[in-house]
Amino acid sequence: MENIFEFKSIEQVKAENTHNDNPYGLVYDGAIRENKQGQVNIHPISYNLRDLKIAANVYTPVGYKEGDGKKYPAICVAHPNGGVKEQVAGLYAQHLAESGYISIVADASYQGGSEGKPRNTDKPANRIEDILRMADIIIHYPGVNQERIGILGICGGGGYTIKAVQTDKRFKAVATLSMFNTGVVRRNGFLDSQTETIQERLLDASKARTQETSGGEVLYTPDMCDMPESEAQKLPYDLYKDGYYYYGKTNRHPKSTFRYTVSSLLDLMSFDASDNADLINQPLLMIAGSAADTFYMTEKVFAAATGAKDKELFLIKGATHIETYWKPEYVNQAISKLVEFFNKYL
What we know:
Shape: globular
Helix content: 25-40%
CATH architecture: 3-Layer(aba) Sandwich
Distance between the termini: 26 Å
Oligomer: single chain
Largest sheet: 9 strands, mixed
Number of helices: 12
Number of domains: 1
Structural class: alpha/beta
């Protein structure tokens, strides 16, 4: 069978990642700096999706050796809205590899290091197809047991994961971390704070699409990370305040952005991850911080997933949404629970 992905050389990778001193451009603590025998290794790859080249990283466990006949379970990791593979999704993929899983994390099409224009188009159909394509790729990766594929969706990637696994039964176990139901928030506002302006914003999105398809300027929503720190401190929700520091300061990456095309709202505002959640019949684990102001989204989807064979809601005491991305004591709890879950069902 012809290879459906290509490995990137370290020279290619270094040329693409010049924003910090990590050769792979990773921005999380404890990130791999070089591949060494006897340790978890990272393998940057690229593959095609609808004529777009997608950028991804595959993490392989200690002892992995291509061609030795050994088979491993694998996990696809879907990154947050605005995130890229070098941030929290990479951190969790690396930890899962440390626990014996081959893991893959890819930049969404139109975002990060993947191709697609207009840049930062953010449509649910695209994100769902990104997830399905990760599965296509990882089942053909050397050493992967295609009957033992799981998925972890983080934040917005969690919402899109919930939708993808409703129909794709190659995923034998499903987990989310700090799930964010993107369409509901884009429509109603965070905590239903913008319900009175839905029609006005849909009209703006409609006009933006007309302008965009007529060859005019592509309109974008504001990028929260560009605001002055003094304004960020006044943001009303922990999600946005913590997100400003994580994405804009401590774990900043030049290809990560919170802006998206205004025309994307035409697709986003009719999307709800909880719709048809009863189609999920795989084991389901949903993890959230007990102090997260986004918890209401996890709670709704968990209740709607009535068909899951075995489902569990796991709360990390004291954690906010963004703190589950980086704070060691919270990350360690999440990884411990994820490994327990995937070990049981994969």
